[in-house]
């Protein structure tokens, strides 16, 4: 190595050391460094001394160079403390800012490892480092992360937010505390019963504003530790509580589906459709066939414009077979599912007998019995389908009020459609579009829904107008409600009235906690849910 190269490499190392030699082999690079200091300050008394005691060697791992591991063999000095009153007689010189005391890695390598560990699991960090020729284990990554996190003291202002998080959902929980000004996590506590929060608040008496969710344990802990602090209930959780009350009321009073009859609907069969429908009804396309017709038209249009089959497959998410099948022909015929088929049937040998019996208006049951006596082994339903096609194709006259199976029509069973309970919830909460006739029918059948609709509107108007008076009227009104869910919601507001009132008049909210909570869940999942609370705290606060 020439002098120019040595000078260039030395710029990456402290000025207190000199590069003596660089050894490169198949296993990596070893750089020999020698201290060039002539004096050093005592770490205990601070007095500078020039009295050498001895030398010592340190082996430190550094960032890899061109994919090769790098180790530094540093020869440094020990000094005598010349201060006779100092208890420290001998001390070793330290390369401050480059590596720490008793460290086996440079500070820049530790920073790189911490950056990896904050974005993946510690075992994953060790695997990545191994691919980069950095020799480290997962346990060492954890030690580095925990050691560096201990030196971090997050700043806590007068405004904080508190929320719970699930360490293992349904089993163990914790408490997350974030600073309201910086929106950064400042503490991660075990449990959500309020005891850990209470002890933490006692050590931070300067806090004046606390935003939180609706948990009564948090409210109690804040009152006991900081009686003068202003508590603010989170607006999101308040609306979430109301939504749960509406859901519970609907689930108890409204069925999963509500049948809405069509006044002008035709009678339907109890077991099978009638065979005497008018031609216009027979030719009417179903919703599925209408969608299929649009697909046929689109495919034929693309083909006429010169698009390739592959391009059409990509654009329409279909198959080559489907394109070949629908490329030619009338869309009105191709869209129908029950197209006529030229396939033969076992019943064709009895066709003349069946036609004769149908013309005599015989029932299918009787025809089936006759065919069985002549050796037929098929089922009645197959014969029904076969006879239906013959009747439609040949226009055979049948009784209007009976089908060919002889099952009478149910005239008193009207046709209609269903409205799901979930759609009603969306209508009440988000003004989801339901046709006026349908919603009129539903509100008339379930009049209590009007009260729920008014409750949602009244509660939202409280925050739109930022009116505490409206809140008082809301509570007074729904405490008298016969709906136990709305009454329970109003009672919950009464128990936490001051915090709810502050959520109306104050500009603060607990929204920034939700983002940090999601970040916490992401970090927990990268560690496969197996991290200790201390390690999770280090990752979220770092």
Describe the structure.
Strand 8 and strand 9 form a beta hairpin. Helix content is 46%, strand content 18%. By secondary structure, the chain is α+β, with helices and mostly antiparallel strands. Strands 1, 2, 5, 6 and 7 form a five-stranded mixed sheet that branches. The protein contains 23 helices and 16 strands.
* Integer average pLDDT: 84
Radius of gyration: 40 Å
Largest sheet: 5 strands, mixed
How far apart the termini lie comes to 41 Å
* Residue share in helix: 40-55%
Compute the number of strand runs: 16
Structure class: alpha+beta
Features of this protein?
16 strands; alpha+beta
Please outline what is shown here.
With 542 residues, this protein is of the alpha+beta class. The protein is built from 23 helices and 16 strands. Helix 5 packs parallel to helix 6 (216-225), helix 18 packs antiparallel against helix 19 (468-478) and helix 19 (468-478) crosses helix 20 (484-495).
Task: Provide the fold topology.
Blueprint: H1 3-10, E1 17-25, E2 28-35, E3 40-41, E4 48-49, E5 52-65, E6 68-80, E7 90-92, H2 107-117, H3 122-131, H4 138-150, E8 159-168, E9 172-179, E10 185-190, H5 195-202, E11 209-212, H6 216-225, E12 230-233, H7 235-253, E13 257-261, E14 268-269, H8 279-283, H9 287-304, H10 309-316, H11 320-326, H12 331-334, H13 351-359, H14 364-373, H15 380-394, E15 409-410, E16 416-420, H16 421-430, H17 436-445, H18 448-465, H19 468-478, H20 484-495, H21 497-505, H22 511-526, H23 533-541
Parallel strand pairs: 2-6, 8-11, 11-12
Antiparallel strand pairs: 1-2, 3-4, 5-6, 6-7, 8-9, 9-10, 13-16, 14-15
